[in-house]
Structures are given as C-alpha cells and as structure tokens.
C-alpha cells in the first residue's frame, strides 16, 4: 500500500461529493424552529460574580453571631437539662423544658409554676433572696442550695392543684 | 428661495435588522444572530450546511430515513443550544458534532432493534456510477469509527484538527484512523493492486 493508493482513495472519496439534502428538510426544520418557544438567555447582573463571596461573608457573620449567643447561654442547657425523672422525686419535665435557656443566665435559673401561697412562703425563707414582679417571683439561692431548692420547687410544681398559680424563677447566686 | 426647497424630506424609519439580507456574513456572525433569536440567520445556516450534514449522517447511519431524522433533530437541537454557543470551535464543526451524536444514537438504537438497511444508493450525479457505488459500498463496510473519519476528512473536506474537535479525539488518532480507513477501502476496491 503506497502513498499513491491513499491519495487515489482520497481523491475518489472527494469526487463522490456530498449528497444533496432531501427536498423539504429545510422547511421541516424551520417550521419546527418557528414553533419553538424561544427563551432568550438571561443577562446576569453585574454583581453576580460577587454573590458567592457575599453569601460566604453572610454565613461567617451568622456563625459569629450564633457562637456569641451560644457562648452566653451555652451552659444553661447543660445545667438545666440535668434533672432526672422517676418516682423518687425527680424534676418534672415541664419546668425542665421551660428552664432550658429560658433566662439566658448562664444556666442558673429554672422556672416553675406554683401555688401563690407556697411561693410566697418559700420567698420568705431566710436563706433566699426574693424579688417580686407583677407576674413572677424571682428566688435567688446560694449555689450550694440551688439543687435542693430546685428539687423542692419541682415537687411542689407537680403537686400544685388546678387553680391560680404564680411563676417562680429560681436563680443561683454565685 | 430656491434653497428652501432643498431641505430633505423626513425619511421613513430604518427597517429592522431582521429584514436585512442575511446571505453575507460568516457562519459565526450568523450563529450569533441566530443565538439572539434571528430565525432568518439560522435558516441561512441551514441552507449552507444541510447538504454536508446530511451526507455525514447518511454515510454514518447508512440509512436515508435515519439521516433525515438525525439532521432534523440535530438542527433543532442546535437552534435550542445556539444561545449557549461560545464559539470555542468553528460553528460548522459544532453543528457536525451535534448531528454526529444523533447519528451514533441512531446506530445504537438500530443495534438494539435490528432492521434491514434499505439503501446504499448513490444520489449525487456521477460520471462513473458503478465506480461510485463500489466506493460507497466499500465505505459502508468500514467500521463506523473509521468511516466517520474518512467521511469527515475526505468527503466533507475537514481538516484533521477540525475532525478531531468534532470527534473529540487527538489529531494523531484521526490521522491513524484515516490511514487505516483508506487502506481498507483500497483493499476492498482494488485487492489485486494492494496485494
């Protein structure tokens, strides 16, 4: 097989030429093209290339804010969520759930709903410092007594009969 | 006083560019216009390339019906894709590639559901019809991978680089496939001379 053979084959192929397209192909194509709903390419706004950076910056700012909030109240959930449930006087679920992050006071607070008389009685005890607000009584106890008071209030909360109650917020004094 | 009548009369507004003749201009310029929705520019591209596209599809699929469908579907696909045509390759190469994909799809479909191929007919006028028929029949006997290279380079007159772009193959591969295609054609057509 020589180069001459190759050239001859190439020449014969070239001379065979193109085959004319069937009559009507163009009309068929163009009728479909005209029937085609045309969507023009949308123009990208000039700031489009910056959008990923803006999104990343917003995400970073969001994370910083989130971490700042968590840093303030992060331990609250751990301390407030440490209660137990059971027949032997565990802390009730309702105040636990309410206490989680409710006050944002570094986890040293829990909320209860008590009979008004019982709440005032506890507030009058010498070891606590009570502050009354129109809707609640804030009871502050030393750190060493916090757990005991918490259990006690939780027990009272569970036993509080239906009727008028007042919100009691138990806080821990450093 | 005479000069007062020399003021030009207000002229009619210039006709819209879509009504201008589109025969003048490169493929790429027409493609840009077609990409913006100019149907007349696209029609001009169809007129320019339909024969070559049909030849490519016919020689690859070996079926007039399949070739017709391939070119039709390929041109519609090209019209849809034109707004995204970036001009990295020549427009003709880009369009050949679209039609070629359709042709390969047709071959694949036929392979799954075999049907008799109805034609190997020579359509173009030719001084030596017997020779031409032999050539086309020999071409049809080639492996599709080699056949398409022979069609692109020798019949359609594409450069090896353009054929490589169309087939997404290196130029060296195109060169070797073309060599082997010609060799096999020569062996089929002139077994005595090549022996």
Question: Can I get a quick summary?
Answer:
The complex is a heterodimer of chains A (174) and B (195). Chain A is an alpha+beta fold and 174 residues long.
Q: Give me the strand/helix succession of chain A.
A: HHHHEHEEHE
**Largest sheet descriptor of chain B:** none
Q: How does the overall form of chain A come out from the CA principal axes?
A: rod-shaped
Over the alpha carbons, how many angstroms does the gyration radius of chain B reach?
22 Å
Uncertain regions of chain B: pLDDT < 50 for 5+ in a row? 12-21, 120-127
Q: How many β-strands of chain A, per DSSP?
A: 4
The number of helical elements of chain B comes to 9
Distance between the termini of chain A: 101 Å
In terms of quaternary structure, the protein is heterodimer
- Mean pLDDT over all positions of chain A: 74
Question: Unreliable runs of chain A, pLDDT <50, ≥5 residues?
Answer: 73-106
Largest sheet of chain A: 4 strands, mixed
Strand neighbour order, sheet with most strands of chain A: 1-4-3-2
The greatest inter-chain interface is formed by: A-B, 30 and 51 residues
Q: Rg of chain A, please?
A: 39 Å
Which range does the strand content of chain B fall in? under 5%
The end-to-end span of chain B amounts to 95 Å
Provide mean pLDDT of chain B, rounded: 78
Structural class of chain A, by secondary structure, is alpha+beta
Number of strands of chain B: 0
Helical content of chain B (DSSP H or I, runs of 4+): 55-70%
Structure description:
The complex is a heterodimer of chains A (174) and B (195). Chain A has 174 residues and is an alpha+beta fold. Chain A is built from 6 helices and 4 strands; from the N terminus they run ααααβαββαβ. In chain A, β3 (136-142), α6 and β4 (165-173) form a beta-alpha-beta unit. Chain B contains 9 helices and no strands. In chain B, α3 packs across α4. The longest helix of chain B is centred in the N-terminal third of the chain and has 23 residues, at 39-61. The N and C termini of chain B lie far apart (95 Å). The relative contact order of chain B is 0.10. Residues 12-21 and 120-127 of chain B have low confidence and may be disordered. Chains A and B meet through α1 and α2 of A and α2, α3, α5, α6 and α8 of B.
